[in-house]
């Protein structure tokens, strides 16, 4: 009985898993990115801009 070399097939399987994970991550970022930005980053940026304006500096959010 001969043993077949299966290293190539496992490399293809790992590549497909990585591509699938990347697609899921890209989808989540696309779908939830605006919500995360609006919830987490805009209030902090607005607060920082207010502090900077009070000190005579300008800020772009």
From TrEMBL:
Residues that span the membrane, as ranges: 12-33
Specify the superkingdom. Bacteria
The alphabetized UniProt keywords are: Membrane, Transmembrane, Transmembrane helix
Tell me the protein's name. Flp family type IVb pilin
């Amino acid at each position: 009985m001969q043993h077949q070399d299966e290293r190539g097939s496992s490399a293809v399987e790992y590549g497909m898993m990585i591509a699938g994970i990347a697609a899921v991550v890209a989808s989540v970022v696309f779908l939830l990115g605006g919500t995360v930005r609006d919830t987490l980053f805009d209030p902090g940026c607005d607060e920082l801009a207010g502090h900077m304006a009070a000190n005579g500096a300008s800020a772009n959010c």
